[in-house]
Amino acid sequence: MATSHSAGYNVDDTFGVLYIGFIVSMIGYGFTFFQTYVYFSRYPKDLFVMKATVAFLCVLDTVSSALISQTAYYYLVTMFPLASAMVNTTSAFCAENTLAAALIFIVQLLYASRVWKLSKNVTLTSIITFMCLVGFALTLAMTAMMVRNAGFANLATSPSKAIVAVGQAAVLIGAFTTFIALRLFCHGAHWPENTPPDDWFNKMFTIFFSQGCSVILVQLAYFVIFMATPTRVIWIPFHLLSSKLFINCLLSLLNSRQAYHGHGIHHEDSSVGPQKSNISGTVKPNVHLSVADTQPPINIEVSRTVEQDVTINKGTFDSDEVSSLTMGFSSLISLW
Q1: What DSSP string runs through 34-103?
Q2: Nearest to 192 by CA among 282, 119, 277, 114
């Protein structure tokens, strides 16, 4: 009976949290697939580098999700009668940890480039880049430790715990710095131009996803729970969800841009933004976003040419009519 009670306790602490993490991560992957489809449908003429990066991130997330599924199947189906089997890591879980680290690293670099474009602040951009490099390197070290010592409990030992903690703290600091920078320098860059001031839902969606607040909350929970209970695997659901939120926040940021002829245009590149909508005469050259300016410039020139032709024809018609009337009056006078 004691064995049965111990097994039940272990199932709650191991298989239960793994199952929750698996379900939540698969939901996150569904949003990744949907947002990737929206991106390629809405911005088919976006920069090739950006499209290739989004496609690569989607492939990474797909492979990561497959590895999560294989890990869940191994623990929940193959080894289900032995709840204690989850004390050891698997090769699939180690590979998933590596792919998740690479995905988060690329996403944070893209956010760093976005912060640089908005602020031109060397300090903020350097902090974000340095933190994502540290987080990526230490997460790879975490994977190496799990491969060498196949046991989650080994992560609670003195050097391993410090490496994991510093790595996750670096990712958290990078995400927090990115969020603060976007809040300071975006100046409403992600509010759609037709969004009313009291549209709190769109604003909350922008804060939690496009600007990465949800990533901060999940990463903070991951860090705190691991530091509090490193010998237990309660941190696994937050680990599985973290990479899904990173890629979905990036896709949300990309999909919030204005679409102009298949190109994605950020707020600061548009002719008139939400903060300047009541100011006339502030137009940047070669950038057109207003409804009245959706046609290419060549159409405007054609319309002007047509208008000039109509004016010329009208002037010719008027002169001919005046000449005929003059001749008619002259004939009447001569006859009279």
Answers
A1: HHHHHHHHH-TTS-HHHHHHHHHHHHHHHHHHHHHHHHHHIIIIITTT-GGGGGS--HHHHHHHHHHHHH
A2: 277
Distance CA 295, CA 111 (A): 32
Q: What is the DSSP string of 228-258?
A: H-TTS-TTHHHHHHHHHHHHHHHHHHHHTSE
CA gap 117, 184 in Å, rounded: 13
CB 185 within 8 A of CB 118: yes
Contact 238, 218 (CB under 8 A): yes
Task: State the Rg of the chain over Cα.
Answer: 31
Measured at the CA of 136, the angle between CA 130 and CA 139, to 5 degrees, comes to 135
User: In this structure, is the dihedral angle defined by the CA atoms of residues 283, 286, 292 and 294, taken in order, positive or negative?
Assistant: negative
Tokens of 97: 């940890």
Computed over every residue of the chain, the mean pLDDT equals 80
pLDDT band at residue 187 using 50, 70 and 90 as cut-offs: low
Q: Are 212 and 182 in contact (CB under 8 A)?
A: yes
CA distance linking residue 45 with residue 263, whole number of Å? 5
In three-state secondary structure terms, 186 is coil
- Give SS3 for 259: strand
Q: In the prediction, which pLDDT does 193 show?
A: 44
| CA distance linking residue 326 with residue 120, whole number of Å | 73
User: Measured between alpha carbons, how far is 59 from 41 in angstroms, rounded to an integer?
Assistant: 17
Name the CA dihedral angle for 56, 61, 63, 64, rounded to a multiple of 10 degrees.
Answer: 140
Instruction: Label residue 118 exposed, middle or buried (CB < 10 Å: 0-12, 13-18, 19+).
Output: buried
User: Is the model's pLDDT at 84 over the cut of 90?
Assistant: no
Cα gap 62→56, rounded to integer Å: 10
Q: What is the pLDDT of residues 105-150, one digit of tens each?
A: 999 999 999 999 999 999 999 999 999 999 999 999 999 999 998 8
**CA dist., res. 234 & res. 140, Å (int):** 21
